[in-house]
Amino acid sequence: MAHDIDIMLIAPRYLAGAGDPAWVTVPLHRACRWSTGEDRLTPQVTLTSPDQLAQLRLTPDPEPGAPWWTLRQAHHGEKRAWSMTFGARTPVELIAAVTDALTAPATPPAAPGEPYEPLRSAGWQAPRQHDGHTSDEGMVSPDGLARVDRIAREGGRTSTWVVETSVHDLPALWRAYVDGDTPPHLVGALFAALADTTPLVREPHRVPHLATAHGRTATGRVSADNLGFALEHRTRTLARRHTPPPPVTPPSGPDGPEPRRPR
C-alpha cells in the first residue's frame, strides 16, 4: 500500500538545491539511448550519446566549489566543440532542460534572438555598474540572489557564460560555466529553465538553508507512488519523441479496393 511522504515546494527554483540526479540520467539512458560506462567501482556516472559525440559525466568531488556535472560535445564538421559544467547543488531540472534540448529529434533553426529574453521577461535586470549605468554583459534576478554574466575572452574568442546563486559575501550555492561555443538553443533552454517561476519539489531534509531563509517555501504531503511516477512519466514522454508515428492508412477511393458486400 502506498504511503504519503512530506515534500517542500521551493521558489525561486535556483534556491532548491540539487534534487535527484536520476531526473537527468535515467531519461538519457532509457529514452535517448545514451550508453553508460561499466565501471561500478567508482561513484562516477558517464553517459555517451549514440553518435559518440556528446558525453555527460557526473563526478562527485569533495573539493568545495568543484563542478560535479560536465556536459560536452566534440568538434564535428563545421560545429565547434563546446562544454558546460555545473556545481553539485545545481537544480537537476536546469541541467535536464539542457539535455532535453540537446536530445530533441530536430534542432531548432538558429535565430538572432536575444539570449537574455527569457530572463528579462521574468523580471531580471541588467546589473548597475559603479557609475550608475547598466551593463549588457549580465542579468540579475529580481531578488538579487542569482545572476548571469557574460565574460568576454581576449583575442576575438567567444565569450563564456557564468551562472550562479549566492547571498552577499557567502560562497555561491552553485555555479555553472557555459562555453561560448555552446549552441544558442541550449543556452536559451538553460536561461528559460532558470527564469521559470514554477516551484520545485524537494524532500524537506534536503532543502538548503538558503531556500528557507531567502526563498518561498510551502510544505505538503503526496503519495510516494505519485512522486515516483513523475520520473517514469518524464522518461516515457521523452521516449515518444524518438518513436515514429504509425503509418497513415490511405482512404479507399475510386482506385482503391472495393469494399466487400455483406451476403
TrEMBL record:
Residues 48-106, 141-199 form the DUF317 domain. Residues 105-142, 235-263 are annotated as: Disordered. It holds the Pfam family SPDY. Residues 244-256 have a biased composition (Pro residues). This is DUF317 domain-containing protein.
